[in-house]
Every structure is written in structure tokens, then in C-alpha cells.
Amino acid sequence: MSKNVDLKRAKILEVAKRRFAHFGMAKTTMAEIAKDLSFSKALLYYYYPDKHSLYTAVMEYVINEMVNRVDTYLMKSRSVEKALLFTLEVRMQTMKENYNLFEYSSSLFIQNPCEMTKSLGPFFEKVKEQFVRILQMGVENNEIVVDGLEETAEIFLFALMGMRTGVLNKECNNNFLFPTPEEFERILRKQKKMMSILLRGLRP
User: Fold this and answer.
1) Tens digits of per-residue pLDDT, 48-88?
2) Total domain count for the chain?
3) Dihedral of the alpha carbons of 14, 18, 19, 24, in degrees to the nearest 10
4) Nearest alpha carbon to residue 63 among 86, 95, 33, 106
5) What is the CATH number of the domain that holds 193?
6) Are 32 and 15 in contact (CB under 8 A)?
7) Whether the Cβ atoms of residue 21 and residue 69 lie closer than 8 Å to each other
8) Considering the domain boundaries, does residue 12 fall inside one?
9) How far apart are CA 90 and CA 20, in angstroms?
10) Is 22 inside any structural domain?
């Protein structure tokens, strides 16, 4: 792929991300994105044949940004607890900044969980791999003892998702499995507390 094509794709994803995050998937059209880019619709469709494929690419773009931000932090920090807590903060900030983007994926999951699992499965694996790296760092520093890095990372992620659902159900104010903007901080506090409890249980 040529550098020019790479730059065009990056520009499309950045512009589409801003529009999806601000207006939501349903209220955004490919024509509007093409207009924002000063592209013809034909050129936009050349790169992404439909709105769903563009949405999936934007999700990957956003998650890659999140993973890269945490990886940059890991180059400076050697504390497994600080690394995991920073990861939680970045995850929550990313969801808040791209609220409509993630809210749409949550609503799609409710409608068709099997299809969304296929589409978003690779993103889950990317985040899980990062958790594996963080846990591995903790093991190498003798901060924690882990029996099965991949399984433990997966359990951590499932626990975080369950924490979000549990908070929403307890509040009884939200019929969707996605927080309102006001609920993010409450969920983050509980996720951090849970992570600290889990880490203490892993210390040698």
C-alpha cells in the first residue's frame, strides 16, 4: 500500500471518528463524511464500501490509539498496579470522548450479539494482549504471581465488563448496557477498587 493511500485512509478515519463521536452512527451519512473530507462520494466508497465497514475501521482506529497510549506509558512505568490503573483511566476516557461511537456498538450487541462478537472480537484480543504484557511485566518484577497469563488477562477483562453491567443494573436508571456520561466516574472508581483487590490477592 502506498504512503499516499495510507495518508488518505488516516484522514478518512480521523474525520469519520469526529463525526461518529459527535453525531452518532445513525445520524451520520457517507455523503456528510465525504463533504467533510472534500472527497467525492465515489472516492470515499473506494476506500470503504459502506458505512458499516467504515464504522468498524474507525473502532479499530480508536482502540489502536488507546492501546498505543497505554504502551507509551508502559515504557516509563514498571509498576504493574500503576500500569493497570492507568489503563482503566485511558479506557474510560476513550469511551467518554467517543461516547456515541461506543454506545452504538453496545446497542448493536444487544440486537445481534453473535454478529457483533465476530466484528469486535479482534479488538478484544488486542486489548487482552496488552493486559498480558502488563501482567508479564509484573511477574518479571516479582510484584505478582500469575498462573496462566492469557486466562488471567481474559478474566480481568470479563470482570471489568461485568462491573459496568452491575453498576448500571444497581442504579436502575439505564435500560441499556452502556453508561450515561454521568455514570462513567462511578464505574471507574469501582473498577479501580476491584483491580486493587485482585492485585493484592496475586501478591506472592
Assistant:
1) 999 989 998 998 899 999 999 999 999 998 899 999 999 99
2) 1
3) 120
4) 95
5) 1.10.357.10
6) no
7) no
8) no
9) 20
10) no
Distance CA 178, CA 103 (A): 6
What single letter denotes the amino acid at residue 145? Answer: V
CA-to-CA dists, residue 36 to 4, 13, 19, angstroms:
19, 12, 9
Sequence length of the chain is 204
Domain residues for 99?
58-202
Q: Domain for residue 70, yes or no?
A: yes
Q: Quickly list DSSP for 36-93.
A: HHT--HHHHHHH-SSHHHHHHHHHHHHHHHHHHHHHHHHTT---HHHHHHHHHHHHHH
At 36, list the grid cell.
Answer: 467533510
Burial class (CB in 10 A: 0-12, 13-18, 19+), 121: exposed
**End-to-end alpha carbon distance in the chain:** 49
Question: What is the model's pTM?
Answer: 0.81
* 153 class by beta-carbon count within 10 Å (0-12 exposed, 13-18 middle, 19+ buried): buried
Q: How many whole angstroms separate alpha carbon 47 and alpha carbon 170?
A: 43
> Looking at the domain assignment, is residue 113 inside a domain?
yes
Q: What is the pLDDT of residues 14-31, one digit of tens each?
A: 999 999 988 888 889 999
Q: Which of 153, 177, 152 is nearest to 164 (CA)?
A: 177
What DSSP string describes 154-185? HHHHHHHHHHHHHHHHHHT--SSSS--GGGHH
